[in-house]
Amino acid sequence: MLVFPNAKLNLGLYVTQRRPDGFHSLESVFIPLPWTDALEMLPAAPGQPTHITLTGHPIPGDPATNLCVRAYELLQADFPQLPPAQLYLHKIVPIGAGLGGGSADAAFALKAANDLFGLSLSPEALESYARRLGSDCAFFICNQPVLAVEKGDVFEEINLNLKGTACVVVYPNLHISTAEAYARIVPQPPKFPLREALAQPMSTWRETVSNDFETALTPAHPVLADIKNQLYDAGATYASLSGSGSAVYGLWEKGEPAAVAWSAEYAVWWGVL
Ligand SMILES: C[C@@](CO)(OP(=O)(O)O)[C@H](O)COP(=O)(O)OP(=O)(O)OC[C@H]1O[C@@H](n2ccc(N)nc2=O)[C@H](O)[C@@H]1O
Ligand SMILES: Nc1ncnc2c1ncn2[C@@H]1O[C@H](COP(=O)(O)OP(=O)(O)O)[C@@H](O)[C@H]1O
Questions:
Q1: How crowded is residue 110: how many other Cβ atoms within 10 Å of its Cβ?
Q2: Is 52 marked as binding a ligand?
Q3: 151 CB under 6 A from ligand 1?
Q4: Is 141 in the pocket of ligand 1 (CB under 6 A)?
Q5: pLDDT exceeds 90 at position 175
Q6: How far apart are CA 68 and CA 212, in angstroms?
Q7: Given this model, what pLDDT does residue 18 score?
Q8: Nearest 10 degrees: CA dihedral of 163, 98, 217, 185?
Q9: Max alpha carbon distance in the chain (Å)?
Q10: Ligand nearest to the CA of 102
Q11: How do residues 182-231 score in pLDDT, each as one tens digit?
Q12: From ligand 1's centre to the CA of 2, what distance in Å?
C-alpha cells in the first residue's frame, strides 16, 4: 500500500500555558499542506523482521526508532496478528521545519496498517494511537482544518475554506528543535482570539494573527524575518512562520506570487491549497 503523508501549516499559534507534565497548552489552526513524502507498506518477506528502508532527506536517529516503525509497533502490541512489515519511506518534506512531517508519516503509517491488514479501527481509535506518538500526530488522521487546543491534540471544528489559495513555503535549511523552541516561550493568552480573527478577511490577518514562536525565535534567526518580508514583497496577503519553524509561508488570497530568486540552499514548495 502506497500513501503520501502530507505536511501541515499553522495559522496563528499561541502558547497559552505551561502544563504540569512539562508540555504546553496551545491554540492554533492546523491546515493540510500538499507537500508530501511517499510511504509504502507491505508484509515483510517470510522470516524477515519489521524493517524500514529510507531514501530522500536523511532522517536523524536510528531507523529502528523512526516514527513509522514506532507507529507500526504500537499497533502490533495490541494486534498480535499483524505480521512483520517492510516499510519504504522517501523523505521529501523538510525535517524540523514546523511542517509536522514526522508526525504525518506516523499517522499515515497507522492508517496504512489499518487499511492493509483490515483492523477496522475508527478515526477516533487511530487518533488515540497517534496521540501517543506526538502532540500534532492526531491531526493527520482526519487531515482537515481544525482549531487545535490543549497539547495540540484536541480539535474543535472550524469553518475555513482556503481551497484555491496560492501558497509558497520556504525552508531556510535551519533545523529548529521543537523542545528548544518551546523553552524560549513565555506563555500568555492571545491578544486576538484566533477563531474570530480568522473569520475576518485574510487581508486583516497580518495585524491580528501571529505565531508566538516567530516572536521568540526571530531575534536569534533574522533569516525568518527576511523571508517573511520577501513573501510580502512578492504580494502575499498573509505570511508567517509555521509551527516552531523554521519554514515560513505566504498565502495569496487573489492572484499569483511574484517570482523570487530564493537561495539555492533553501527548500521551496509552491502550489495551491
Ligand atoms: C510546535 C508544533 C505546533 O503545531 O508543531 P511543530 O513545530 O513541531 O511542527 C507542535 O506543538 C509540536 O508537536 P510535536 O512535534 O508532535 O511535539 P512532540 O513530539 O509531542 O513534543 C516535542 C517536544 O515539544 C514540547 N512540546 C510539544 C507539544 C506541546 N503541546 N508542548 C510542548 O512543550 C515538549 O518539550 C516535547 O518534548
Ligand atoms: N519519519 C520521520 N520523518 C521526520 N522526522 C522523524 C521521522 N521519524 C522520526 N523523526 C524525528 O522527529 C524529529 C522531528 O521531525 P519533524 O516532524 O519533521 O519536525 P517538525 O514537526 O518540527 O517539522 C526529527 O528530528 C527526527 O529525529
A1: 26
A2: no
A3: yes
A4: no
A5: no
A6: 29
A7: 96
A8: 100
A9: 59
A10: 2
A11: 999 999 999 899 999 999 999 999 999 999 999 999 999 999 999 999 99
A12: 27
Could you tell me if 86 and 43 are in contact, meaning their C-beta atoms sit under 8 angstroms apart?
yes
Half-sphere exposure of 247 (CA within 13 A, CB side): 29
Supply the ipTM of this predicted assembly: 0.95
- The sign one gets for the Cα dihedral 104, 110, 113, 116 is negative
- Of 135, 146, 169, 249, the residue with max ligand 1 atoms within 8 A of its CB, to mutate for a pocket test, comes to 135
The answer to the question of whether 97 is labelled as a binding residue is yes
Q: Locate cell 517470510: which residue?
A: 46
Q: Which residues are catalytic?
A: 8, 136
Please, are residues 57 and 7 in contact by the beta-carbon 8 Å criterion?
A: no
> What is the 100 CA–ligand 1 centroid distance (Å)?
9
* 10 touches ligand 1 (CB under 6 Å): yes
C-alpha cell at 269: 514548495
Is 98 marked as binding a ligand?
yes
Q: Is the dihedral of CA 150, 155, 156, 162 positive or negative?
A: positive
Distances (CA, A) of 124 to 3, 129, 136, 141: 20, 9, 15, 9
Q: Which grid cell sits at 133? A: 506518538
The CA distance from 82 to 60, in Å, is 27
Owner of C-alpha cell 482570539? 193
- Model pLDDT, residue 180: 86
- Show the cell assigned to 22: 512539562
Amino acid letter for position 212: D
Residue 176: pLDDT band (50, 70, 90) is confident
Report how far ligand 1's centroid is from the alpha carbon of 44 (Å). 32
141 is annotated as contributing to ligand binding: no
Compute the distance from residue 192 Cα to the ligand 2 centre, in Å: 31
